[in-house]
Amino acid sequence: MSKKTQAAWVIVQHTAVNAVASGVPTPGLEIHKHVALSSSEIAMCVRIASIYSGIEMSKDRIEDLLKEAGIAVAAGAGLAVAATTIGHGVVDELLNWIPVVGWAIKGTLAGSLTVGVGVAFVKFCEERYGSYSY
């Protein structure tokens, strides 16, 4: 199986989990739920990096990747993620009050954001490690 196919399956797995987890109504806890969603996205990126690099990712290796990508870029991305998480959490709180349709919208929104993160990270890994198959 090619690296791109393996990475696609990882993205599908994390997207499904995040979409279902986000779709469940939890009034008053939506922003807190996004910590778990973000953790899932980080785990997805670590799994994709392992696929492309061929080595298990450790804390030190992840720090090296962040340095390579640029700490300023990572810090900016962190701030963007925090702002997006708060905005997404507020929208999710409002969607909790629209049964079924609102919950489906929440799940779709979370899933699409996870796919976006995954695809962007695959592009980074292809540039960094190449997209050669084993």
Number of strands: 0
Give the domain tally: 1
**Proportion of helical residues:** over 70%
What is the CA-atom radius of gyration, in angstroms?
16 Å
The low-pLDDT segments are: none
Largest sheet: none
Following the backbone from N to C, one meets helices and strands in this order, namely HHHHH
Written overview of the protein:
The protein is mainly alpha-helical. It has one domain. The chain contains five helices and no strands. Helix 1 packs antiparallel against helix 2 and helix 4 runs antiparallel to helix 5. The radius of gyration is 16 Å and the shape is globular. The termini are close together. The model has no long low-confidence stretch (mean pLDDT 85).
Could you give a short description of this structure?
The chain has helices spanning 3-23, 30-53, 59-69, 71-95, 101-129.
In terms of topology, how is this protein built?
Layout: H1 3-23, H2 30-53, H3 59-69, H4 71-95, H5 101-129
Helix pairs in contact: 1-2, 1-5, 2-4, 2-5, 4-5
What labels would you give this structure?
globular; single chain; 134 residues; mainly alpha
